[in-house]
Amino acid sequence: MSGIAAMEFRRGPGGSVVALRGALDSQTLPPIWSGARAAVRKNGALSLRVDAAGVTYCDGSGIAFLLDLLREGTRQGARVTITNLAPRFAELLGQFDQARLGDEALPPALPLSRIERLGRASLQFAGNLRRQIDYALRVTGCLWYELRHPSLVRWKEVLSVAEQMGVKGLPVVTLIAFLMGVVLAYQSAVPMRQFGAELFVANLIGLSMLRELAPLMTSIVLAGRTGAAFAAEIGTMKVNEEIDALTTMALDPLRFLVVPRLLATMFVTPLLTIFAGIVGLIGGGLVMLSFDIPLVTYFKQITGVVSIGDFTGGLFKSAVFAYLVAMIGCLRGLETEGGPRAVGQAATRAVVSAIVMIVVFDGLFAVLFNLLGF
Amino acid sequence: MSAQSIIEVEDLTIGYASDGHDTVVLEDVSFRVLRGEVFVILGGSGSGKSTLLKHMIGLQQPLRGRIAIDGDDIVTADGPARRSIMRKFGVMYQMGALFGSMSTLENVRLPLEEFTEFDDDAIDLVARTKLYLVGLMSAVHRSPAELSGGMQKRAAIARAMALDPAIMFLDEPSAGLDPITSADLDRLILRLARTLGITFVVVTHELPSIFAIADRVIMLDARTRGIIATGTPEQLRDHSDNPWVHRFFNREPEEAMP
Q: What is the ipTM of this complex?
């Protein structure tokens, strides 16, 4: 129903009157609602009668409008009555207790003192930390057990995940590694050429790509691609109660879901890192050609300066980073509570946490390798 | 369109395209829903109840036929005309489909904020009256994840009612609810139909609910791909000659288990 609604406010000897006319619905009310409320407010504590004789239609919004006038009048201390409202609308209006429409009717929330809030936050932080350490230990325990009993590993799942993250992740890893080699070579070759030392760009690219950048960038790409996918997939399973189903079928979600992903990631990431390192070196080599350094000279220079320790150190780091990415991605998925939004949050948290942990561990490795003389 | 009917479905054939050919779910189905009645679409699993509902609310296009909502054909309408037809009805989905990122009150406020010119106080009050009607005033600030299944369905009804639509479509309102909550929901539907004059189109196969709320029923059948019975629930239960209708209302298994 639609049409027009009108409101007239007048003061009389027996009190004020708000006369309403027309259809009161969501289409007709906006032009008169705030004006009517303002009139009731201005009327103050004087007795007020809302005359609904001219109301031809009243839907849920119309009822809310009448309730608003009653509530506003009561707030001002006025005695408000609604008269001449058609019985079917009056019956509808009669269903509402205006005192229960606001938040006042809700049970009061217990206020917490600053100390209590601090205590709760501390307990929550400690609880989260304990759960995460417990999770890491249990996952590591599961992984160790399954490596000692390979027949228990769900190899089909491992291969499927490895294909998803490895083969399908190859193009983006290739692109980033190649461009990194190119950028690194250009940025260093131009200033070093002033000293006639452009050949040593090969040393720089070789060491930085194989020791540092290939494992770091590959892991960061995997954190964005694979870690987020693990969190979203397991998070959706959690929301759909599939994790509960696994548990009640006496299947350990860690063994069933986390370990295969962990194994696949730890297997594929070092391979991707080797590939990224080689592609990065090729990218740098192509740039060096434009500086009149032949590829043979470039690669000979690299093999002369990069030791097997540099290479294996990079691979070891990539395996640790892979462990962190997979473990954090699965953890964030398992922590998911709620609906679709929580799944998105889990994926975001997985990426952020994984990248932070990768950088932290990279720093630790730098110190450790230095102490060990690598 | 007859003065009494608010929805008219004429010669409707619905289905889906698969492997290069059309799979027909319902063929040449026609029926009318009268203004202010509680109209129930029932049938066994896979009979096309929910698919029919999706066509009636314009989410899917039929293979052929006409669906008139208050005189306007939703099948051929597009753009603003289609949106205008969609404003005439509210829908409660089977799982509630409340937005998890919003509180219950915000879920109900959303259509009011988008489609009306009320000020913020008015929107708040209108939304609260809807939640009051469905008995959820104690949960206005809770997120949908904190609500029980029955509360989520009631909140979904409140959201569907936000703009005071003339028609409400409910998909399996009683599914997954305990008998008491289900009966509460039935009472709510009846109360809204009788006091607000809303026309309800309800898809369900819950027999107690059908007897509690339905003014008229149509029964769909997957084998004939059409309507096999129309009438009040009592008429279908007591006077139908169709063996499938008889089995359905008497909860008889289709064939003996081996």
A: 0.76
